[in-house]
Automatic annotation (TrEMBL):
<dbReference type="GO" id="GO:0005730">
    <property type="term" value="C:nucleolus"/>
</dbReference>
<keyword id="KW-0539">Nucleus</keyword>
<feature type="compositionally biased region" description="Basic and acidic residues">
    <location>
        <begin position="129"/>
        <end position="145"/>
    </location>
</feature>
<dbReference type="InterPro" id="IPR016024">
    <property type="entry name" value="ARM-type_fold"/>
</dbReference>
<dbReference type="InterPro" id="IPR005343">
    <property type="entry name" value="Noc2"/>
</dbReference>
<feature type="compositionally biased region" description="Basic and acidic residues">
    <location>
        <begin position="57"/>
        <end position="74"/>
    </location>
</feature>
<feature type="compositionally biased region" description="Acidic residues">
    <location>
        <begin position="24"/>
        <end position="35"/>
    </location>
</feature>
<feature type="region of interest" description="Disordered">
    <location>
        <begin position="19"/>
        <end position="74"/>
    </location>
</feature>
<dbReference type="Pfam" id="PF03715">
    <property type="entry name" value="Noc2"/>
</dbReference>
<dbReference type="GO" id="GO:0005654">
    <property type="term" value="C:nucleoplasm"/>
</dbReference>
<dbReference type="GO" id="GO:0000122">
    <property type="term" value="P:negative regulation of transcription by RNA polymerase II"/>
</dbReference>
<dbReference type="GO" id="GO:0042273">
    <property type="term" value="P:ribosomal large subunit biogenesis"/>
</dbReference>
<feature type="region of interest" description="Disordered">
    <location>
        <begin position="115"/>
        <end position="145"/>
    </location>
</feature>
<dbReference type="GO" id="GO:0042393">
    <property type="term" value="F:histone binding"/>
</dbReference>
<protein>
    <submittedName>
        <fullName>NOC2-like nucleolar associated transcriptional repressor</fullName>
    </submittedName>
</protein>
<feature type="region of interest" description="Disordered">
    <location>
        <begin position="622"/>
        <end position="648"/>
    </location>
</feature>
<feature type="region of interest" description="Disordered">
    <location>
        <begin position="87"/>
        <end position="106"/>
    </location>
</feature>
Length: 648
């Protein structure tokens, strides 16, 4: 009967109903009568937990549609003409993106009822706005026992604050930060307390004293559940760093980011963005910002050398070359800082450093070869520039810092050959080899009187090329003698404890004696004679200590132990160098700060009268000197000159 058939249809599923063949007209009538009840009883199917179940349902439905072709061919043809998508149904159509995080989908699902956060609500604009008073609850909560919900709310508020710095009003945020006082309070709260709050929430143990290895947050059982919120927060920190301009604020955020390094190490994508921002601040920021950026870079590369060291070194070298294009007293300290820190980064792994050094020293050699062979202005300028010079300085510093190293030692010879080639091509602008330094003493005529007098000294550290006018000035020769003195002293200081120092210093002693015989300028002779005496004194000291040695020259171990003992006790040259270095650094600081030596001369200031004042004086005394004229003035000048000669 009809009621029983209706009950049977009611029990059928949608798929079974589609396969019923639509044979009974009574069933259609029954369907119309019970449509209201069916609509009321239909429920939303529960979401499948795994993709395997979804694939099973899809395959089953596809089989039902294929069976429909044999049972009801007319209806199947109708579907072919009007709904091809239903027949071409595929298993993949029911699957969601496998790469999408399920927790992230949960957060992006539209809730049935919008919640208003406990921070603050704006009923007029339907936007949530944080306030100073509402930040008290999160602050108290983070100090006691931070929960995942509390961290999520703080992260969303922080995201909204960062969006205001970027000017990205279209970005969807749960909160809106419109007041600058609220913004400052929120950022300050995150910088101070967020790191400790995250550690508490994840229940991470504090590292023990002396423990160098970092405790990664991913080791916490709560990490997976809270990973999305943490990822959003540390990404916001990187975005905040890129939008800030005030150096003090950038430094404060970098200190916080340095604390968050373990979290960046657990998230590779965010870590790469963080490293890019750090390299930018390391190469272009203010002094404190540069130091903090380097500390974070060093920390990351020490803990993940195999992943990050190679790309970081490459990017740091490129940033160094870009930012040493122009050299001045203001930029020189920053360039020297980049050289020292980059040398320290290269010392982390000599194998990786060798690959980089080999490639870049070879690149310098290729530029030099092209300049020598082609002899064009473009190729010449590719070598004769500050970037090329600072690259040579960098690799000299790297190889000397890591020395002794069996891995990097083969690169010393090619680097020296490049430097010698530059000296022969350009001149003595990049001289830092002792042999070529001493050659300048013989090539320059120091007895020739300067063509011009100049009180202002020449800072050779920031001058790439001297004009012909500069070469004729007295300041040029004064500065040249100072530079020769500094370079020779620094070189012999590095070898002062060597057992072969007397033999090493002999050629320089001969050249210095020859210079003193030829030079007639007292100031120059005084400086070089003092240098010669210090070198000879150190030779006598090493010779005396060497005569008491009971081992042979071939005993390498005994020689190394002897040199180490001499270095600990000190030599006359090393003691003199330490005193000289302190005085020299003070002089350099004065030059960098822009203070000139003229300030010490206390020269009187000559004030000249203006033309109007001169005319007024002439009018005032016109009656007394009626016969004065320009010719008379000239005659008077001649008269005074003749009287002066007579008096002499």
């Amino acid at each position: 009967d009809v009621p029983s058939m209706c009950r049977k249809l009611e029990d059928l599923s949608v798929d079974e109903f589609m396969l019923s063949g639509f044979d009974s007209g009574e069933e259609d009538d029954c369907e119309d009568e019970e449509s209201t009840q069916q609509k009321g009883k239909m429920k939303k199917p529960a979401p499948q937990k795994t993709s395997v179940k979804k694939q099973g349902k899809a395959s089953e439905h596809k089989d039902h549609l294929s069976a429909l072709k044999s049972k009801d061919p007319e209806f199947y043809e109708f579907l072919q003409e009007n709904d091809q998508k239903l027949l071409n149904f595929d298993d993949s159509d029911s699957l969601e993106d496998e790469d999408e995080d399920e927790e992230e989908r949960m957060y992006h699902r539209l809730p049935s009822q919008l919640e208003v956060s406990h921070l603050e609500a704006d009923d007029d604009n339907d936007e949530v706005e944080t306030g100073k008073k509402d930040l008290k609850k999160p602050k108290e909560g983070t100090k006691k026992e931070p929960t995942a919900k509390l961290i999520r709310d703080i992260t969303q508020a922080f995201k909204a604050a960062v969006a205001t710095t970027k000017g990205d009003s279209e970005e969807l945020c749960r909160y809106t930060i419109s007041d600058s006082a609220v913004f400052n309070s929120l950022i300050l709260f995150c910088i101070k307390d967020m790191h400790a709050a995250l550690n508490k929430m994840l229940k991470l143990k504090d590292p023990e004293k002396g423990q160098k290895k970092l405790i990664l947050p991913s080791s916490s059982p709560r990490w997976q559940k809270n990973q999305i919120d943490i990822k959003m927060y540390i990404a916001g920190v990187v975005q905040l760093l890129s939008s800030l301009t005030q150096s003090t604020v950038v430094a404060a955020v970098l200190r916080h980011a340095n604390q968050m390094v373990p979290y960046y190490l657990c998230l590779p994508k965010q870590c790469r963005h963080f490293l890019k921002s750090l390299i930018k601040h390391w190469s272009t920021g203010e002094e404190t910002v540069r130091v903090l950026a380097f500390l974070a870079l060093n920390k990351i590369c020490r803990n993940k050398q195999d992943i990050y060291l190679n790309p970081v070194l490459r990017q740091m070298y490129i940033a160094y070359v870009k930012n040493c294009k122009f050299t001045s007293p203001n930029t020189l300290p920053m360039i020297n800082f980049m050289q020292r820190t980059l040398a320290e980064m290269y010392s982390l792994d000599t194998q990786v450093s060798y690959q980089h050094a080999f490639i870049y020293i070879r690149q310098l050699a290729i530029h030099l070869r092209n300049a020598m062979n082609l002899k064009k202005k473009e190729t010449y300028q590719s070598v004769y520039n500050w970037q090329y010079m600072h690259c040579l300085y960098l690799w000299c510093r790297v190889l000397s810092t890591i020395y002794p190293s069996e891995v990097l030692e083969p690169l010393i010879y090619p680097l020296c050959q490049v430097i010698i080639g530059c000296i022969n091509l350009i001149g003595f602008i990049c001289v830092f080899l002792c042999t070529y330094v001493c050659d300048i003493l013989q090539q320059e005529d120091f007895n020739k009187k300067p063509g011009r007098m100049s009180i202002k000294p020449i800072n050779f550290a920031v001058i790439l090329k001297l004009s012909k006018t500069n070469l004729q000035e007295k300041a040029y020769k004064d500065g040249l003698v100072e530079q020769l003195y500094d370079l020779i002293l620094e070189y012999f200081h590095t070898q002062a404890c060597s057992i072969g120092f007397p033999e090493l210093a002999l050629p320089t002693i001969v050249q210095l004696k020859a210079f003193l015989k030829e030079c007639k300028v007292a100031n120059y002779c005084k400086q070089m004679r003092q240098l010669l005496e210090k070198i000879q004194e150190n030779c006598s000291y090493i010779t005396g200590r060497r005569q008491k040695a009971a081992f042979g020259v071939g005993d390498v171990t005994a020689v190394a132990a002897w040199e180490k003992q001499v270095a600990e006790e000190g030599t006359p040259l090393t003691k003199y160098y330490s005193q000289w270095k302190k005085l020299r650094e003070k002089e350099i600081q004065l030059e960098i700060s822009g203070k000139e030596r003229m300030e010490d001369l206390n020269l009187p200031e000559i004030k000249r009268k203006k033309a109007e004042e001169k005319k007024a004086d002439k009018k005032e005394f016109k009656g007394l000197f009626e016969s004065d004229s320009d010719d008379d003035d000239d005659d008077d000048d001649d008269l005074f000159k003749s009287k002066g000669k007579a008096l002499c």
